[in-house]
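Support request, please re-run this one:
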Amino acid sequence: MTALTHAILNASSGHLLLALLITVLGGLVLLGLGFMYIYRARLLEDTPSSLIRSAAQGYVELNGHARLLPGPPIVSPLSDTPCAWWSFRVQERDRNGKNNHWRTVEEETSGELFLLADPTGECIVDPDDASVTPSLSRSWSGPVRRPHRPPDGSGWLSFGDFRYTEKLILIGAPLYATGWFRTQTAILDLNESRDVSELMGEWKRDKYNLLKRFDSNNDGQIDMQEWEAARRAALEHVRAQHVELSLDPDLHVLSNPPDRRPFILSTLTQKSMTRRYRFWALLNLLGAIGCGWLCAYALQLRDLF
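Re-run finished. Output below.
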């Protein structure tokens, strides 16, 4: 008689009912997860890949590389590693007599915007609520809560009561994304007279360079003729800026869909993600079948079925 058979035969009615209920609920959860992963795999296969320049508004699939927006860099707070996206967890060893377990003391995920770039353009990515497959995932241990340095590969900080887990999308990493694509037309506030006045004001505050550039007779003063030349130069500069701004492409943004379709950011290809989802679907469906078999076996063994 196996241990499972012995346990079923000797369990009280109340314990058996509770075990069956938990098994049924677990099977239903596994069944739901299995169908969810099948749905995701089919959705990825059926969603055509788009280029940023020609992508339709709505749910799209894009392929490109991770880039940073102009401005301050994105840096992982756990290891000070430059990246496009980060997520980390810090756990502390909780010593309780003979039992040791890890307790999460800090966990955070980046919500900073970054770029997805393909040969036709760039798209701003808002990573909130995305399902992310990173380009780098690592864990190590140490004696302090914040290491502020990644492991060096030679066992540095391989001991201690703190365990660190870090996930990163590195700058330049290949990026596959599905999500809600929308284009926002830039609203340009182009006022030629105002912008010329502001630029002239800036030049006046820098008297040394103003004289160097426009004092044609070298008398240390800007006369009316020289001032008019400066104004014409400012006008040309402002008009060139306005032309450049008016030629800027519209602002493309990729974010979490308003419906229940998945928002995916992955450094794996679409083919790899589809294979992964189908594998997880198979595991969950097999688990659901196993739960169903276990319930039927228990009921039959106790002559309840």
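Residues 192-246 form one domain. The chain has a mean pLDDT of 86.
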